[in-house]
Write a structure and sequence with these properties.
Helix content: under 10%
Strand order of the largest sheet: 1-27-28-29-30
Largest sheet: 5 strands, mixed
Number of strands: 33
Strand content: 35-45%
Structural class: mainly beta
Shape: globular
Distance between the termini: 27 Å
Length: 441
């Protein structure tokens, strides 16, 4: 069976992606949303049927990517940091590849292994390891094609909780965040790993925060630049604004935008970055607004990007709210509403906000803090204690459509995000991966 699957994979073109795949972090468009339909709108009392489960994956919070019949993830196994591939049909291991030694993280939270999701781009897979190894592997067999180091090659400083970025592949570029004082972001040639451009903070404060009030400006921590890693724990997105393609990323002290073709620094917005530099959630771009958020007593802010008469970019604050302190569970926007968990280390619960104004529409303790994904008019919430909850999005109140507990829960927080692909729900719990059938019968 293993060799049959590999033969099928090797025959696929470099642009082949199945219709309802989840080939990278936060799905096809990095929005946390799937376009899949035909899924269950409510779960039975005991939850959906468990199709299969696998064990012995190794430690880590890496959520899987699913593409062309294959499931790909990352783990620590013993003294090695590895990338693994499983058959989407039954979870059988197809291959496993070492990308370097396991990283000893001094902080106890999430030290079990990698937290980034691989990015599948046709015949190749791209990953970022905890210590800053960027690697390209062949999808067919896991062969390592090239490797770079964010620390050795670009002077990056490993963040306190290690690198946890999921690389962005856009056109011929792989976008990653070393976090060095002079190389905040870098674009690598996806074919050979060569450096295409590097981006750095400007020496002077860029335009863009003039319209923000003093309180939001003071929330920025730019004065610490260069003393710590400027890399945070977020992953970049690609957006198109006024004819300019750009990469938007949450780094240690700000939300930033750089030009896709050259890496030119365009703008920054400091308010969403907390003073602890623990900025984890992926930014959002929807309906003309860029939104980013963090926890630790901070919150989230929306900006509208404009181009001044002199050609410089401005990130003009539309609103800032402390009612969406998203820790690392992610957020989605659906029908004008922003959904996500509001809370930090001491817990929290789901909230729904008007995306254009930041007004709180509802909050509900029955929807505990956790990570979310969206598919077929339903929100999939995985709470930090491991409970899976199915939510019908509604601007007026929390509507639950089912919940269940996975078997054999580990003692670690359930931080790997849920993934929905091809009628299946994937739930990772460290060493284990559970595959549930959520297709409507």
């Amino acid at each position: 069976m293993k060799w049959f699957v590999l033969a099928v994979l090797s025959s696929l073109s470099s642009t082949s992606v199945w219709a309802d795949d989840w080939p990278q972090w936060q799905g096809p468009e990095r929005t946390g949303m799937s376009k899949e339909t035909g899924l269950m709108k409510a779960w039975p009392e005991d939850g959906p049927e468990l199709a299969w489960r696998v064990a012995d994956l190794g430690g880590g919070d890496s959520a899987p990517a699913i593409a062309s019949g294959m499931i790909v993830g990352m783990s620590n196994r013993g003294q090695e940091q590895v990338v693994w591939a499983l058959s989407e049909e039954d979870g059988e291991e197809l291959w496993v590849s070492k990308i370097g030694p396991a990283v000893e993280q001094r902080m106890r939270q999430s030290k079990e292994g990698p937290g980034g999701t691989p990015t599948v781009d046709g015949d190749f897979i791209y990953v970022v390891g905890m210590g800053g190894t960027v690697a390209c592997l062949r999808s067919e067999n896991g062969e390592v094609i090239w490797k770079r180091s964010l620390t050795e090659d670009f002077g990056g400083i490993v963040p306190v909780w290690s690198y946890r970025e999921s690389p962005l592949v856009d056109d011929d570029r792989v976008i990653v965040t070393p976090g060095a004082s002079d190389v905040i972001m870098v674009a690598l040639n996806k074919g050979n790993g060569e450096t295409l451009w590097t981006s750095q903070f400007p020496q002077e404060e860029p335009a863009g925060n003039e319209d923000a009030d003093n309180s939001s400006s003071e929330r920025g921590r730019g004065r610490f630049r260069g003393r710590f890693s400027e890399a945070a724990y977020s992953s970049a997105i690609a957006i198109e604004v006024k004819g300019q393609r750009q990469y938007v990323q949450m780094v240690g002290t700000a939300l930033i935008g750089v030009a896709a073709e050259s890496g030119k620094f365009l703008w920054q917005y400091q308010a969403p970055a907390n003073r602890m530099r623990i900025n984890c959630s992926t930014p959002l771009y929807q309906d003309g607004l860029v939104f980013a958020s963090s926890a630790y007593g901070n919150g989230g802010g929306a900006v509208r990007l404009e181009v001044a008469a002199d050609g410089t970019w401005q990130a003009n604050e539309v609103y800032f709210t402390n009612k969406m302190q998203n820790h690392h569970g992610g957020m989605i926007v659906y029908e004008g509403c922003l959904y996500g968990a509001n809370g930090g280390n001491i817990g929290g619960f789901m909230a729904c906000l008007d995306f254009q104004t930041g007004e709180v529409l509802w909050r509900d303790r029955d929807a505990p803090k956790g990570s979310i994904a969206f598919a077929d008019e339903r929100i999939y919430l995985r709470s930090e204690d491991g409970t899976m909850v199915l939510i019908e999005p509604n601007s007026e109140s929390f509507i639950e459509r089912g919940r269940f507990e996975q078997p054999d829960r580990s003692s670690a927080p359930a931080w790997a995000h849920p993934v929905i692909a091809n009628g299946k729900l994937y739930v990772r719990d460290q060493d284990n991966l559970f595959c549930y059938d959520v297709q409507a019968k």
